[in-house]
Amino acid sequence: MSNQSSITLNIVDPGTNGVTCQSQSGCFTPINVKVKVGTKITWVNKSKLAHTIVAVQGQDIAQPKAASQIFDSKKQIASGDSFTYTVTDAAYNFNSDTHRVLYYCSIHPDMVAQLVITK
Ligand SMILES: [Cu+2]
């Protein structure tokens, strides 16, 4: 997947594929994706609820704090809508030891997923 120039990730309702928004592994599907700098990511909201997509400071998923300078959908993504972000060097360097960026939904903070960024 890391060599694709664009990928699509889905946001799905609880129960689909056995996942649930009540757990940290819910809704963002897949929850762990390897991407290269320059890859265009499109998240498609296939769930019935509106969500946001916001990068998280550091690796603390228990009390996620927004890192809006990395990426932030800013507004709610309604059911059927999508949000697009192209992976930057800033994201690659954000957690310089791991090159991982966590992100979450600020409306449902248990929705957490991860990008593993390569060059
Ligand atoms: Cu949400």
UniProtKB/TrEMBL annotation:
<dbReference type="InterPro" id="IPR000923">
    <property type="entry name" value="BlueCu_1"/>
</dbReference>
<protein>
    <recommendedName>
        <fullName>Blue (type 1) copper domain-containing protein</fullName>
    </recommendedName>
</protein>
<dbReference type="Pfam" id="PF00127">
    <property type="entry name" value="Copper-bind"/>
</dbReference>
<keyword id="KW-0186">Copper</keyword>
<dbReference type="InterPro" id="IPR008972">
    <property type="entry name" value="Cupredoxin"/>
</dbReference>
<dbReference type="InterPro" id="IPR052721">
    <property type="entry name" value="ET_Amicyanin"/>
</dbReference>
<feature type="domain" description="Blue (type 1) copper">
    <location>
        <begin position="23"/>
        <end position="116"/>
    </location>
</feature>
<keyword id="KW-0479">Metal-binding</keyword>
